[in-house]
Write a structure and sequence with these properties.
It is built from 8 helices and 8 strands, in the order E-H-E-E-H-H-E-E-H-E-H-H-E-H-H-E. By secondary structure, the protein is of the alpha+beta class.
Length: 228
Amino acid sequence: MRTKGILAIWHDIEPGHEDAVLEWYNREHHIERVSIPGFVRARRHSAIAGEPALFIYYETQSPQVLGSESYLARVNAPTEWTRHCMPHFRANSRTVCHASVALQGAEGGYALTLRMRPEAGREHDLRNYVGEELFPSLRAEPLFLRAELWEAVHDITTIRSTERVIRGAEDRVEAWTLVVWASDSKTIARLATRLSDQRDLSEAGAHPDMQCGQYQLDMVLEREFIPQ
């Protein structure tokens, strides 16, 4: 089933707390989130080039799931373990998104994310370039699998919560994110080099300030496989 909502998260972890935070993710937090009605799966990646250290995304049946009563009840009543771990987040970025353009295919074990924003008034131009030129051109890349353009749903992203407060610093919000999947790290590195050459994207309407990260998949949790 292809899902329509995404909660995209990037962050570093305060040095010395990496294992504790990853254990919390594995043993509680991902399970808690994917158990919420409307959530489908969680995928967590670690950086092999670029930053931040972690790239996590949750897929949901719609972006509205991230503003639902069930979800807000969770983020406003964090567990003790969550209260202990979230203050160790650094450079946290959190955005509720929808996939506006998709080139369907398998999701590989390697991904790159290109976080960017369109220049004012160039949204339509940039979206068309991604869907009609950039993504089709990726099909010719050996070992490329799939690509999506995620766009922020700002009214849901900016809902306040107790978890926001305990993280301390304000979350960064990504206007748009290009996500590309491949089956090996060399392909991701090659595609990152290509996409980091900003001339075509800038000419199509992207602001030149872009952040590219390369990631390897660490874990997947599907709703149907939640431990009982």
